[in-house]
Sequence to fold (558 residues):
Amino acid sequence: MSAPLLQLKQVTRRFGGLVAVNQLDLELRAGEVLGLLGPNGSGKTTAMNLISGALPCSAGQIHFLGQEISQFKSHQIARLGVARTFQLVRVLGGMSGLENVEAGLAFRPHGLHGAAARQRAQALLERVGLGDQADTPAGDLTYIDQKRLELARALALEPRLLLLDEWLAGLNPTELQQGITLIRSLREEGLTIMLVEHVMEAVHALCTRCVVMNAGIKIADGPTREVLADPHVIKAYLGEDDSDETAAEVVHA
Amino acid sequence: MSRRELLGWGLGLVALLGLALLPRWIEGDYVLSLLISVLMYSVLATAWALFSGPTRYISLATVAFFGVGAYCTAVLGEVLPWAGVLAVALVVGVVMALIVGLATLRLSGVYFVIFSFGLAELTKQLFTWYEVNITKDIGRYVFVDVTQQDIYWQLLALLALVLGLRALINRTRLGLALRVIGEDETVAVHVGINTTVVKVLLFALSAAFITVAGAIMAPRWTYIDPSIAFAPTISFQTLIMALLGGPGALLGPVLGAVPLVLLFEYLSASFPNHFSILLGLVFMVIVYLVPNGLVGLLRRKGGGR
Fold:
C-alpha cells in the first residue's frame, strides 16, 4: 500500500493541566473520507487545529505528503494543500461572496488574481449553489449560505486534504441532503476529507472509516459500521447504563 | 485597467498639476502655511490608513516616526544635502518600523494600540534624556535653506506618491491580503497568507512616509524640542482625520484632513485657551455621528455600497 497522505504519531496537546489530545496516532490515505467522532470536549476540534497548524503540538509529529509539518505555520500548511472550514463559521463579512472565494485562490501556489480569479471564483460559487450571491456581502448571507461560502473558499485552495469541522451541523433536513450530496461529489472526485461530525446520518452516508475519540484518547478506528457498533464507543457516547435500544438508535440512525 | 480607473488616474494628475501651480496665485504666507498644514495631515492620515485602514490595527505611533524624521533634519540639515537628509529619514523610519513591527505586530487589538502609544512616549523620553544629559540643551534650531514653497511642493509630491502607491496596492494580491487580514486573521493564515510579512511590510511602508513627512516639516518650525516634535496630539489628530474621512477608502483620509485642519486652525486661533477641550469634543462628536467615516456616509446616501 502507498504511504499515507496524513500521519499523526503520538500527537499530544496540553492546555495547562488539561490534555486535550493525548498521544493520538492516526493515518489517512488518499481518497479516504474519515469521520472524526466523539462526545463534546473529546478533542476532535483540537486535533483538527493541530493538523491545520492553528495550534502547535505539545508533543508528537504530524506528517503530510511525507513531510513533517508539526512545526509549520498555518499559512505554510495551507499552501501544502490542507484546507479547512471552521466549527463557528468564519466568512469575511465585509467582502462579497466572490471576494471571499478569491481570497482562497490568490495565495495558494500558482495562485490566481484578477480576471482569471473572478472566473474561477464564480465557478466555485456555482458549485456550492451560491452562483447568484457573488455580489452579496458575506455577512448578509444566511447561515447555510455562509457555510457554503466557507466550503467554496476552502475548495479554492485546491486542497489535497479537506478538513470539515461540523460543516453539516445546524442544517434543516433539505439542506442536510444537499450538503451530503455536495460532499459526496467531492469524494467521487478523489478528494481526501476528514470531517468532525455529530450528524450520524451524514457520517453513515459519507464516511468510509471512523475514528472515535474520548477525553483526548482514540478509542476506536475502523470501518464506519463496525466502529459505531463497538460497545466502547456506545459507552463513550451514552454512558454505561443506557438500554440497548438507544444504542441501536445511534448505530442505525 | 478599466475606464473608471483611467479616469481616476487622469483626474488625479490634473488635480496634482493644479495644486502644484497654486502657490503662484497665493498672496501672503498665511494661506500657504494653512495649505502646508492641510497637506501635512493629508500625508500623515493617508500613510496611517495605508496600514491601519485595511488591517484595522489602530496605531498611535504616528508621532514617533514623525518626530524622528524632524530630528533627522535638525541634526543633519546643515551637514548633508537636502536629498540626503530625506534619504536618511526614510531609512531610519523603515528600520525603526521593521524592528518595532517584528516585535509587536503579533499583538492584536487593544494591546497593539497601547503599545504604539507607549512607543511614541518612549521615543520622546529617549530624545529628551539624550538632549538633557548628552547635548545639555533641550532645543535645537533648524537651519536649512528650504522655503515655504519648497515644503509645499515636497509635501504635495509625497501625498501624490502615497496615494498612487495605495491605489496600486489595492489592485494587487497584497491589497487583497491586507483586507483579508483586516476581516479575519485566522482565515488569512488558513488561505495561505503569511500575515507577519504582510503586516510588517505595510507598517514599514507607512512609517517611511510619516518619517519623511516629519523631515520635510522640520524647517518650518525653525526651533524644535522633543515636546514639539513628539506632541501626542499629532498622532490623535492623524487618527481622527483618517476616521472622519474613512480609512478604508483611498481618498477618505484626505477628505477627513481638509475640513479638520481648517476647523482646528479656526479653533486654535479663536479659543487658544480652550483648544484642547474643543479638540476632545470634536473627537467625540465624530465618533458618535460618523462612525463609518464620511465616505461610508456618502455611499449610504448614494444608495450603493
Summary: The longest strand of chain A covers residues 18-28. The first helix of chain A runs from residue 44 to 52. DSSP finds ten helices and ten strands in chain A.
